[in-house]
Structure formats: C-alpha cells, structure tokens
C-alpha cells in the first residue's frame, strides 16, 4: 500500500488551494478590465443626455425671448412701382395694348386692430403717361405708336379704398376695395411736324372731352397682395391691382375685359404708431 508523508500531504493541499484560486483571480481581472469600460460608457451617455437637455433649454429660452410678430402700424406708408397692362386695342392701326411703368405711393390709417385682423383706410396715388390717337376722326381714343401719335396723356390717379390686413406670421396678407379717379391731362404730342399740328390739336380736344365726359374717369379698383418683414418696422410686398372701367361698361362702350387694367407692383411699407420707441428689453434679442 502506497503511503505519503506529512510533507507530501501538505504539498498536495497547497497545490489544490492554488488551483482553486486561479479561476477566481482570472474572473476578478476580467471584471476589473470591463469596469472602466462600463464606467466610461455610462459617463458618455450622461454627457449626451446633458447636452441634449442644454440644447432643449436654449430652444425653450429662445422661444420665450423671441419678440412677437410686428403688428400693423396705426399709420402705414408705402411706396414702390410696377407695370400696368392697359387692355386697349384698336387693331392694326394702333399700338398694341401698352404695358406702362407706374410709380405709386400710399398712406394707410388703421383704426381697427384686432389681433390678426386689421382694417384700414387706404389713400393711394399713381402716375402714368403714354400717347393716344383717334381713328377716322371719331372717338374713342386708342394708344398710339410713336409715328402716328397725336396726343400726349399724363394720368394722375388718386384712389381711396378700404383695406384689410391679415397677419399669418411671417406673411401679412392684404386686400383692398375702393374707387379711383383717372385724372388725365391731355396735350398735343411732343415733337410733331408743323403740318401735323392742326390735326393733333383737334384730336387732342376730342380725346380730352372723351376721357372727361360721362364720368369715364371713375373706376373701381381691387388690390390684393402679401408683405414679408425685412427689418424692424419695414416690409416688402407684392401687389396685384385690377381697375374696372365701370362707366364704359354702363354705356356699352366696351365688352369683356376691354379697357380693364391689370397692375403688378413691388412695394416697400413702413409701419408707425406715432409713439416714442420704448427701450429694448435686455433679455430680448434686438431685431
């Protein structure tokens, strides 16, 4: 029978204990290696959450401090220009329907301001000029080509209309309905030959009588458009204007859209309240 000594027995016990400790040590080392990674991952997640929270707080703060949409001013001054199609056509012997440059200015008083809806009284002034002639010596007059012109006409067109503003930030919609007076100053055309002056004077008198007779200068107008803010109280806009020859229509001198006018304008508008400007709030960014 094989026997072991006490010394050998202690060696076997020590070896067994050492073998039992190796897996525990390996597991401990692996855990120690993974722990920093887990810690680093958790710190990164926390940093991302904090960054997102900061951005959300900034957006909320900006929304709170953002100034409200600029209201319609009690007084609105506008100016600009555009082109107007005069739908007047006398055939091959006349000029085609002219498209004329037309500057304008307007002034609004806004007595009714109810949030997004505002009602104003609009005064407007437009100016145009062109040449006219009469065919076969009988009215009506028609736009003339330069070689056949007889009369020079300057139109001064004041208008008064009720205008509505509707605010849909950042866009401000507008529409106006009213009446205009086409006050035409008629003179003989410039730089005519002396031989043509007698006919030109006669036609000029006929053209003036026609434009001023039977209330033909009276024309309803309809305007609509939209404005966008530029800076502070100033806005830029696009307008469409329709002018209707109601008296010619009543006298059966025109049909369809003949003698109607269609205008397309670019406008710049300033909105004023007649009050001293208040000092800006330090917490509100300036516009």
Verbal overview:
The structure is a single chain. The protein has 287 residues and is α+β, with helices and mostly antiparallel strands. It has two domains: 1-66; 75-272, Porin (Beta Barrel), CATH 2.40.160. The chain is built from three helices and ten strands; from the N terminus they run H-E-E-E-E-E-E-E-H-E-E-H-E. The chain has an eight-stranded antiparallel beta barrel. A hairpin with a 2-residue loop joins strand 2 (99-114) and strand 3 (117-134).
Walk me through the topology.
Blueprint lengths: L5 H60 L9 E12 L12 E16 L2 E18 L6 E3 L7 E18 L2 E11 L1 E6 L8 H16 L5 E14 L2 E10 L2 H5 L10 E12 L15
List the secondary-structure elements in sequence, H or E: HEEEEEEEHEEHE
- Topology-level CATH name of the largest domain: Porin
Strand content: 35-45%
Helix percentage: 25-40%
CATH class of the largest domain: Mainly Beta
Structure class? alpha+beta
**Total separate domains:** 2
First CA to last CA: what distance?
Answer: 105 Å
Mean of pLDDT: 83
Principal-axis shape: elongated
Sheet with most strands: 8 strands, antiparallel, barrel
CATH architecture classification name of the largest domain: Beta Barrel
Radius of gyration: 41 Å
Which ranges are low-confidence, i.e. pLDDT below 50, for 5 or more consecutive residues? none
Strands, count: 10
Specify the number of helices.
Answer: 3
| Major sheet strand order | 1-2-3-5-6-8-9-10
């Amino acid at each position: 029978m094989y026997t072991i000594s006490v010394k050998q027995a202690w060696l076997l016990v020590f070896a067994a204990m050492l073998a039992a400790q190796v897996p525990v040590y390996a597991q401990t080392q692996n855990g120690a290696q993974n722990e920093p990674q887990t810690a680093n991952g958790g710190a990164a997640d926390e940093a991302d959450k904090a960054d997102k929270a900061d951005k959300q707080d900034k957006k909320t703060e900006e929304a709170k401090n953002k100034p409200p949409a600029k209201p319609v001013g009690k007084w609105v001054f506008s100016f600009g220009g555009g082109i107007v199609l005069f739908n007047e056509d006398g055939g091959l012997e006349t000029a085609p329907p002219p498209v004329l440059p037309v500057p304008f200015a307007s002034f609004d008083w806004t007595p009714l301001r109810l949030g997004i809806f505002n009602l104003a009284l609009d005064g407007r002034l437009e100016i145009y000029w062109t040449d006219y002639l009469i065919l076969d010596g009988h009215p009506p007059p028609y736009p003339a080509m330069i070689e056949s012109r007889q009369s020079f006409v300057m139109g001064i067109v004041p208008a008064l209309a009720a205008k509505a503003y509707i605010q849909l930030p950042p866009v401000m919609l507008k529409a106006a309905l009213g009446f205009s007076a086409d006050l035409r100053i008629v003179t003989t055309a410039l730089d005519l030959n002396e031989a043509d002056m007698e006919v030109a004077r006669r036609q000029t008198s006929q053209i003036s009588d026609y434009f001023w007779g039977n209330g033909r200068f009276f024309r309803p107008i309809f305007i609509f458009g939209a404005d966008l803010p530029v800076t502070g109280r100033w806005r830029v806009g696009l307008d469409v204007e329709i002018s209707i020859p109601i008296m010619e229509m009543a006298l059966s001198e025109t049909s369809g859209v003949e003698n109607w006018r269609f205008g397309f304008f670019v406008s710049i508008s300033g909105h004023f309240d007649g009050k001293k400007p208040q000092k800006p709030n330090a917490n509100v960014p300036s516009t």
